[in-house]
Records
---
Amino acid sequence: MKRFAALFAALDQTTSTKAKTAALAAYFADAPEADRLWCIALLSGRRPRRMITTTKLREWAAERAGIPLWLFEACYPVVGDLSETIALVLPEPTRETDLPLATWIARLRALDKAEEETRKSAILDAWDSLAPTERFVFNKLLTGGWRMGVSQKLMTRALAQATGIDEAELTHRLMGDWTPDTATWASLIEVPDPTADLSRPYPFYLAYQIDAEPETLGPVTDWLAERKWDGIRGQLILRGGEHWLWSRGEELITDRFPELAQLRDFLPPGTVMDGEVLAWDSAAATPLSFAQLQPRIGRKTVPKKLLTEAPVILMAYDLLEWGGTDWRARPLSERRAQLEAALADLPDDLPLRVSPRVAARDWPGLAKARAQSRDLGAEGLMLKRRAAPYLAGRKKGDWWKWKVDPLTINAVMIYAQAGSGRRATLYTDFTFAVWDGNQLVPFTKAYSGLTDAEFNEITRWVRKNTTDRFGPVRAVRPEHVFEIAFEGIQKSTRHKSGVALRFPRMARWRRDKPLAEANTLDDLKAMLARYG
Amino acid sequence: MVLEFTEAGIYCPAADIHIDPWRPVPRALITHGHSDHARPGHGAYLSTSGSAPVIRHRLGDIRLQTIEYGEERRIGGARISFHPAGHVPGSAQIRVEVGGEVWVVSGDYKTVDDGLSTPFEPVRCHTFISESTFGLPIYSWTPQDVLARELNTWWAETAASGRHAVLGVYALGKAQRILRLLDPSNGPILTHGAVEATTAVLRAQGLDLPETIQITPETDLKSLSGAMVLAPPSALGSAWMRRLGPVSTGFASGWMRLRGVRRRRAADRGFVVSDHADWDGLNSAIAATGAERVYVTHGYTAQFSRWLAEQGYQAGIVETEFGGESLDAEDSETEGATP
């Protein structure tokens, strides 16, 4: 654990990507094999299941620290992180041990079936034998909230440095349904057997939002345009008579969308498609709103009623594997033509469509098509270079999102709450309201979009202008107007205002706007009627 | 009441005198030279002889008398004496006795011997007025010897990679304490003007501090490789730092105990060191006074006074304009980094 805690400290002490990569590469070169595998697993979101409730952890930590529980709870919002709060209040360890990371994880997992007393003594014993940073890391394993300020991409780059294996190839090898229990360093990293895991997906290619005028991309004829659909990105794999659906977050979601199983009967094994899972209105041949898809995402099993209310389709837009061969290096034009040919003669009622091409003679023509997106249930356009291969990860140059401008509304800040983690000492989480007569009605929260300097300024202001406190939430004097940008609006019974926004954030601090000029509840209702 | 809490600050009616007042008053007792305790505009000042040079340096031409630690003075109906607070060189707690009842105003204090300030001495009293800047059990300071090792290791590594190490520290107290911990064999020690000025004042009053070189527009930074640079926290990341070339940055503060604060400051290193008492320090200091009643003035006042009440003290909160320790100002004059 000392080696892993030292890695954590090294990553935590620097903001330099180069230094982080070097620290990780050094770890991959010399840490024990089982620890290296767990490190990769943790940094790619494969964490061990949470064994102990945080309520118990709080109680035990307070007890060991000799403080009442209320005092522990008073420390937590100041620190902003439970694992760290526990590590900070505990007394100095009385013993020293240095067991490998993998051993600690095995010990934790062994507690799964244990009685509470056994669990408690195991945890207290661990706290008592770990140094402060090791304790913090151990608590992170316990609570499952694992973030080390290292993206999967950076981790993969470090692994490439340590092993000399190509980064994109490694990205692919690390995908799929493995755990440190099922994999070895050799089988995962060094000499993977491609047939060992039929379900293994390809890394998704991710687009950037276009940051210049589209004319700068060159001739419009070099580009293929499609709608940017507002569903969930999915990769459908048909191999060996079975099928798997992977989400972009590398989660297997096959069972949530049982209607896709029938595609096995219509497409040959050795087919892999990239597309968007959409709730679909087949009569109108348009997508249902994201709100209607939402109940399907959270469920592992789907009741019949939901299947009829919100049936899904895969809106396919790319072909990654055909006839068992990896097609990613071929140009989009070729992949796309094969995709269209393969799907051309399928029955109309199959839950599978090809995302239509959006044709235009020139860029202004495409801009006009883009402007219609919201009315068609899309978020804008995707621009893809016809000659481009299918790359791994987020890469600039060949794929661009060209989203419609967000909806905006001017709202009054009425509540503020401190952030957590890095932002624990700043007021960053705000509640906004619109006018209903002379009342302010809260309708959304937002916590991003301002600069650090602006958060600092508003934090000072909040401290001086608090009118009431409800636990960690402060009511503040209505004075500041912010422009709230959002991607969509839905009806909601959970909110007093009757609406719920998608991806709300602060677009601008409208210092120029007097309080009275903030928008009204009627303005919101009009938006709901038009876009909801 | 031996002491009262007024708009202008803590007041002793028997002596008709204020302690560390924040509004101009005729006569003021001053615990130490930080700017939230020693303010301009009073008619007359009384401080320890150890604090006087810095107070004069900061406030200019004022009417200031001095007193030694432990020396008793009768003012009106009160007996007044100053006792070491261990916060910065010359800092004092002020003991006020009226008709046999004793109150002590701690000012700011720490219980750890920093090797520079006269160490904190508990003073028996009936009522103790305490700060609680770090009055939560999450605050516990790195032992001085470990801190010295961490600082010198960082400096040596930074110097070896051809960079300067820039450390954000308060000009009064923290800077000199750090100076005493540094190993000058690692390289030269450079200072920002604000740090140098206060250091010069303390040197002149006889404190033994290593040699420092103030950075001026004429300083040839290229010839001084691998230096340790001491600067006020506000100078880090400012235009002033640019001419230093490649650097590794660090902060030395009690707030560095929190990972969130370390990350928000985006410095390469955080060193956990404070001139205020940590949780154990506050509790042991209060216990040693034998006081029955404790008033808490600044910091985590609500939480700390509730804790003290549960421990059997008569505990109360007094609103003051003392700042505690802040990373956002050159001195400790604004509210702390806590929400």
---
Amino acid sequence: MTEGARIALAVGAALALGFLVMACVTDQPWAAFRALVTGPLPSMERAADGRLVMHRLVRFGAWLQDATTLTLVGLAIAIPFRARQFSLGADGQLFMGALAAAALSLGLGDVPAAIALPLAFLAAAMAGAAWGLAAGLLKTRFEANEIVTTLMLNVVAVQVYRLIVGRVLNDPTAGFITTPPLPGAATLGPLIARTNVTAMVLVAPAAVAAVVFLLRRTTLGYEIDLAGANPWFAARAGVPVARATVLAFALGGAFAGLAGFHVSNALLKRLPVDLTPGMGLEGIVVALLARGRVAALPLAALGYAYLRVGAQAMERATDVPREVVLVIQALIILFVVSDRLAPLALGSLRRVWMRIGRTA
Amino acid sequence: MTVAPLAIALEDVEKRYPNGTLANSGVSFTVAAGEIHALVGENGAGKSTVMKMLYGLERPTAGALRIHGLLADFRHPGDAIAAGVGLVAQHLNLVPSLTVAENVVLGHEPRKPGGRLDRVAAAARVRELVGQSGLAVDPAATVASLPVGVRQRVEILKVLHRGARIILLDEPTAVLTPPETATLFATLRHLAAAGHTVLVITHKLDEVKALAGGVTVLCQGRVTGNARMADVNEGTLARLMVGRDLPPPPPRRPAGARLAPRVIARDLGYVDGDGAIRLRDVGFEVAPGEILGIAGVEGNGQDVLARLLSGAAVPTTGDARLDGRVFTGLSPRAARSLGVAVVTEDRLHDGAAPTLSIVDNLLATRYAQPPLSRRGLIDRGTARRWAEAVIAGFDVRATGPHQPIGALSGGNMQKLILAREIADAPAFLVASQPTRGVDIAAAAALHTRLVALRDQGAAILLISADLDELLVLSDRIAVLYRGRIVARFEAGAVDARTLGLHMTGLGPEPKGGDHD
Amino acid sequence: MNLDLVATGTAAAVVAAATLRAATPILFASLGGLISELAGCINVALEGVMLVAAFAGVITSAYSTLWFPDAPLWLHPWLGCAAGLLAGTALAGLLAVFHLELGADLIVAGIGLNILAQGLTVLLMAHLTGDKGSTASLASFALPSLRWPGIGAVPVLGVLLNGDEDTGHNVLVYVAMAATGLIAWALRHTVFGLRLRATGENAEAALAAGLPVRRLRYAGLLLSGLLASGGGVFLGMGYLTLFQADMAAGRGYLALAAVFLGGRRPLGTVVAALVFGAASVTAARLGQLAVPAEVVFMIPPLVTIAALVLVKQHQRLATRRRAAAGRAALLSP
């Protein structure tokens, strides 16, 4: 069985079980399920003058926006994983990236977009990279378990973010705790009207392509792969294992930082204090669905973003809370990593099938 | 009615792994109770699989096993233990942080009320078993602190504690010195005389001759010979094992004037993180075109010496120079750039990345230099062509350059590792156990390559537990014992027995650092 | 008696009692983490186990009054407690099945189950109470507190043993302490402890010795689930008397950190759990001063990271000392 079919099966099973859960908490499970599955699609209608008109573009946009963020945080998980490092730090890196981009954009004030945008972009990448670098150094210098340190660094990052947004960058004129709106020159304009689909939707696949090239064709990429495959061997062969590991963390962090830039300078255009953490965990799902293959990340992100946007549509349309998508997400994770599940399920299915055939 | 009751009987046993590999096919042989029986064959001939099936670690896909006449369908080792079968595995299976007594009783512990472990009874039981078998060990010692030979005794005690009547030993002498081997053989004969049945795997034919009453030869998963020891000679067995005649040993170096040394190590000493002295006062010289052999029982400092010389550890005292330049105490990469190459002791642990392709494994030491990379970009085409050339030139059995190296046999993997290490024509090669676990044909090929490298003028340090290999290849041999060089010989002027005595500290010269 | 001394002692006792209370859930979970870690299975799902246990405990104790209106009042919290332990253990059992039977990576499956727990608890809470935040609208019960009679008036000791409100400590605080001793003892002195440690340290050796390795790993994971459930039940039925979304708030991960920090030994793990408890109490105390809440919340994670670094540095210094002694021996002829 191919890997793709296995994953499709796992996702299908997770959706089916998710439907069962929905059926338990609502009396209109079909409506909820339909909203979940068709939510992100725009609908087309022929208007009075005969032209095709697209409706619900907002959600379609939301799908692409979400996929963009997810691709970038997926990179933040997948790159350290090539060095066999289990980084859960994309969350903190994203917050630091968003904060750095927003702070710089506000600090620069009125400058041309050609200056503001690249600088904010770089600031986000560097802030994320720095946060990843910290976890990498803790691992290589002090052998501190990266699962623990990245989780702890996430907490610190979120609190630093809230401290600075709430007490330094706070806009007292807004009705809630938030930064002032970012200057227009520092924000990205939409590619699709009425959505926040910006140039970042092209940056994400470009980033993936760059990382694929890096891993496959550069000496640094080779070092990261070798350090992950067998660090003892890599060390004896003369590969700078610690440097490769730290750089994998930092590089991953840079992309999570860019996801932060996407959130602050493309999606929200200002940063509220209560920006919800958790995007990092979503990155794990995406990296997992791609089975560690960087080139498959955009596809996995599109698929998973579809589900998330569908869940929002479902929550609006019915009384099923969007948390049901957490359940589906968890089931996808569990089913995808259970290597022996699919053969087991298919095997017993086949046996049942044969027994039916025999009795019939 | 048979005359002697059969302890073990295999009837047309087949083992096919889920991935399709056929490890055994049509294997039938019998072992009488009280017999010492040898199972011989090359690596990969399927000997270990037979052992695993007898011990419940694997289940045969066809055929039947009988233990003392009863059909044995072992699902896990617990079943085998209950049937009176015990296994002393090749890689010793002990829990390092536990004591000898705890390891011996593990799984069959004496208890006090409340599920408590009765440590006093456990120690008493070990002393009792020691008394019966003559295997000397201290029940209170922590296993981590014991040398390999003693750990093996613990394994045998473990088997005896479970009341095993049939004892399986998988390559028990691979890690032992000649005197330790002699002790082990005496113990096994003692146990057989007391009614135990012993089945021992080995590929050393002299051991078979010395120990076994009967022998079964496996080749490529099938039985190719089955005989009473009295009826066969070693030559016959060797042909049965390999399926063809053996290649001749590589030619010795022509005697000539010794050149000025290329590698000079002086006063090397190393203290590990526990404060233990692992190496002291080690000095030697290796001339171009010379192989210096290092003999020693595992754990007497060879691994540390190899690490120091390849830049993987920093010597506490002393240094080593290659063509006048110090290459120790730097880094693996720095040592390599000065012309040092290394074949590490454990190829799966630090000699290769089993999950990566042949190409990626070959690249490991040369990826950062032209022609394989320029300005940080790897030239994948050149790398692939190089890998294809190596596969052809070294007669490696592989499906192609992108096959994971871990899927290859030990011999093929080792050929690739050696190919990688000698690709840059190193001035100094440190080769640790270069043919361990490698079949005879591949070992011969590896030896030829080492000799060819020597003839090109490289200096070689050959660290090996295989005394035959050392005696055939080395020009001079030094013996390491407890971190010191305790004896030095010209290769032609020493035999395995003398080396063995020095390796265990029993050499005729006074111990210590006295100079003559 | 010197009044200052009493005041200082009382203040210290208040902090100590609060630390104990704050450390109890982490202590439970870290004991669980320790047991599965020693069996060779890192249990990342401690967080989810605590959540599920807290939720099941709170909901069951509240609904128990509807299901068994005639039952005596004291029974409801205990029914909740049993349900919480059962639910949490079941989640750990699910982790065991996914890892041991279906070949799932332990860490990823653990994270998956944490997400599942987070989603399911909120989903069911919203379904049952119509509120996605907490179960404040339900009348749930707390497990009883044990109050030492007759020492309320004794300075310092009274506060220490019965808390600053003289209500006594929750029974689970005592259970946690008892469990600590029991587990430390059992790991060292029982056959089960020996087998568990052997399995975790060298599974191949354990298998060759005929030990039921898979069953031992099940035991390790289920026991870790049971213990972490104790922590979860305490959160919902002792520390607070309701369930909140994401109530475990990272304590499961902290507990895992405590296991590593404590060098995978019982005593070390307990000390680390107490340090984390003290850090959160300190954070709360600082919060009463003019220190921003955000800074306060940074303290526990920073303490964790600092502790990991310090432990490593400590080991390094010890190694260096030993090596220096060896070096002296090497240099002396």
---
Amino acid sequence: MAKVVVVTSGKGGVGKTTSTAALGAALAQRNEKTVVVDFDVGLRNLDLVMGAERRVVYDLVNVIQGDAKLTQAMIRDKRLETLFLLPASQTRDKDALTPEGVERVMDELKKHFDWIICDSPAGIERGATLAMRHADVAVVVTNPEVSSVRDSDRIIGLLDAKTERAERGERVEKHLLLTRYDAVRAERGDMLKVDDVLEILSIPLIGIVPESADVLKASNLGAPVTLADSRSAPAIAYLDAARRLAGETLPITIPGEKRGFLGKIFGRRAA
Amino acid sequence: MTKVLTDARSIRIKGRSFLALVLSPELPLDWWLGRLDDLAARSAGFFLGRPVVLDVADLEIDRAQLKGLIEELGKRNVRIMGIEGGRPSLFEPGMPPAMKGGRPAPDFEVPENEPAAESSKAAAEVASAAPVIREEVQPARATASIIVREPVRSGQSVIFPEGDVTVIGSVASGAEIIAGGSVHIYGTLRGRALAGSVGNASARIFCRKLEAELLAIDGVYKTAEDMAPGLRGQAVQLWLEGDSIMAERLN
């Protein structure tokens, strides 16, 4: 049974695209057939992060308008044969997406894939609502910072109101993915602490991704973080988050605490 | 430059409800006006001094026809206070304003035939010819209240003018609760809470943890800046004494 996941946040720049690519690759590495779909029509980026920008011929809008078949638009990843990308159009705007068209594409994708990961655009308008429309599961990407938390709260409200599941009286399963978490700054009080964010949003936590240069490095390389260096801290966080998404139960470690512990040991050794 | 406030006291805004009669004309209009004349003939002054709203939601007419209808009603001394359910294109300057958000109220008593000579058969006819008045009877209730069992998220508003609102969960920054009665929040209040919104000075606000952006009771409001810092993060109840909001820590 295919699961449709929307990666959303309301606010821009919090790491939706990075998270979509990383989670998509992590799930595909588990040998589950995965497609990542870019809904950010007009500002597409997922192709870059996936390193497939030079192989895009047709896109989501072409498929919706009937100019291309779904199989023609999908791009198979060169590193993982279970991973596919359905890119967005860069030359159109979000009005090119129609509810009927999106539904048709989703129904078709559900026949072929285990996981359909939708990368939502920022905002709460058409693109974002269509991206979440068919979701079974939502990954709400949030930075530990007040405006991001409030926007995420708004999105959670929309997930409970505007999705197909909500309209059927069911619930969309919601998970919080805390990204760009900087333990030192959180400790100093420059950033919200994990508990504060959880208290405000009151949805279960699926992972904490530390702020790291590895993320930028990976996207410049055109590789999902989980593929670029699977032993980097953010990659481990995403791999664990993907396992939790697939239903495994794992304890969550808050990045700072772990480092604080190791720091103590190293500090003592140096002394 | 910054504007200097002339008076620190805020303006009080209250809600007040009047029972309005709703007329729902039917086509053809001549025939409907004839029936209205029948009603008026039986009880002169039925519409006198009462607010009357024209419901045109199910009526297929254009602007000229609507204008004509309002004039015809004017000739019969029926003054239209507002028009409900009309498309924006129906309106022009000088017409009664568009209204929305009306709620059904108990049926209005159609007066008995004044010339009591008429038979009961005629009275039955009156009853059947009375669809001019909405027939939605709502049972009278004791103090109404609603319970929201999940957090109220940013951008959502819970509006319940009929009574109390209880939230089991938090009210996020950017969310609002508007209640005709009291507001009870079993969680953190970060957004806005407006109690007694339709004019109820005895309404109160209760919350387990106060981080509110704005609080109002019966139109008197307080923003986060005006609140005593000692109340932040505390379990608090708020009530109205005269024109000022009082607050007290619970526990």
---
Amino acid sequence: MLKTAIAALGLGMAMGMSLASPVLAADAPSEIKLGTLYASSGRYASISMPVHAGLKLWVEQKNAEGGVYVKAFDKKIPIKLIAYDDQSNTATASTLYNQLITQDKVDLFVADSGSVLTAPAVTIARDHKMFLFDQTGTGGSFFSKDNPYIALMSDPVSTIWPKPIADFLTKDGPALGIKRVAILYSTNEFTGTQANSLRKFIKDANAPIEIVYDQGVPTETTNYTVILNNIRAAKPDAVIHLGYAPNDIAFLRNVQDVGIKFNMLFCIYPGLETELLEKNVGAKGLQHVFTYVPPSEMAYPVNFGMNIADYRKAWDKKYSDGKIEFGFNAVAGYTTALVIEKTLSVATSLDQMELRKAVFSLSGKLKTLDGTFALDETGGQIGELTPLGQLELNDHGHIKFVAVYPHEVATGKPVYPRP
Amino acid sequence: MPSFVRHLLLIVAPLIAAFAILPGVYDNHLLLFNFVIFLILAQGVNIIYGFTGYLPFGYVGFFGAGAYGFAIMVMHFQTPAPLAVLVAGVVGVLLGLLLTPLLRLSGAYFAIANLAAALAVLHFVANPALESITKGPYGVALNGTFNPTLAYVGAVIILALTLGIVVFLRNSSFGMALQAVREDAVSAAMAGVNVVKMRVIAWLASALVAGLAGGVFAWYVSVFYPDNVFSNDFSIFAIVFALFGGVATIMGPIVGVLILYGVYNLIGFTTPQYFQLIYGVLIMALVLFLPAGLVSLATRRGWNVP
């Protein structure tokens, strides 16, 4: 009995001492394991690979400097990137996400790109109480007050993407002569949610704007000629097309083929993946098209990490073969990396809830090349907004961006109606 | 011992016991769950293709419909998850009934029509006009029913049921009659087999197990989009696994899933950069040298494969 009591006392003292003593650098792991997925093939490869390349660039850069500073151990520790290829297959992604957590025992859990491939990670992260660094999965259903294990790093949630378009249409539009708007969207979460939000923003504004055409089409749609004629028949002043890159390519090609000139035409991906669109549609086909202005064109002031010019140089050096396009997604992957780096520099341990606390502590303070990182209480990204811009040709016939809304970031006036 | 009982005791019971025990010794439960799901789907393909000759390229339609049947019951009627899984099975059967006219087609025509039907169901579910019912393209989040452990148990029970159906088909005059219909429908009809009735029953049984699998999948993953549960990868994998092992047997699809899905994950974990190369070579080798599946290695030697 006495022996048991002494043993218990000894154990208690030992535990107390271990809790009271600071974490020593000697206790530090030899590497921080960062687990993620990418899609080298399939439907989501075009968005996944640039994001992954951005993340990988950061890992190599930091490891060349001896690692990232980890406050919990007060020293630099190398990052070990564990990345599996899910090939755009969600069932495979589920298994691989689970592999990262249960077998590889990663310290940092990072999702693949886009909502469809992020969806399996949301449940798995919650199940295993791992904090999910959601790169570009903007789905509104991921974020709820009862799920603390997620935050969106590099894109605003889908619901607030089209705010600048709606504000431009309702505030500047009537003066320009825009009164009738057509909305065409692909029926998937990313673009369908934007269509819903755009519709709501326009209605809530009570501006003299009428939605004269509002149609969803399957994401697989590749021929828009009949749809274009229907839109033309509705006589809109502005046409807002919300689709993925392949949709935009097909749509803009069909616009050229049919020979229609809408006074205002908006598409998402000429701004987000300009190089890809220019290759497939041609600079002429993108002239005067309204789009989102990516961070690569805004040169946001940064207080952490490389600015856009330096990042572009580093990207061109590492990916000099040009196989992976530099664009919005390339910036997104690097932005995720910067949030992770900053998180490790303020988190007092690698406990998942401590990581969450550290991520949320950056909200509104961290300014990267992607803009200001800001989270709402559910982990949804409400910063990093993308202004509305218009593509024009410079003197050499190359594409250039002109930001037109909001006015405080505008770099020029909109060309309306399209000549 | 009757072969029916022997197959249950020597094949079904050990497999079910293995999948009941494995979560205790291996942490990647989702991998085990996916094995169970593909075993169910491969056996579902076996029921309709192996025993009747109809190749269902759009088999995922039943799976996705089941998943959304589960989601709708949980979202709108707050149905307990096990009951919602049963409803998912019923949804699969109802869709099967709706698509029964497809059985008038055969060969490639049936396969293509079935694929088109699955796409039609996908676009119906993902239609923004149905947002209030299915959440359209915006995805569902079923946080209230999230329980991976129970969902796994549910999947293993459905696997047992599916294997039970296949064992029955393998050992009953009903299964023999189906195979007779597959080989020559006219001769089978002249021998007194009700061809239409037989095909419809096999079709609905196949739809039932896919619907149940979809329901339990929705229960496990709880957050998904139409693209997740209507992904044609499910159909392709289930068909390839069944063909790899050998259809119209109990063991064939089991061997196919365990080997091929095992290799699939092994490559994915170790050498993802060579994924398509290794997997592609493996499937090409199968098509060229073992078109009747792995079990043909045994049947060629005159061995009886259950």
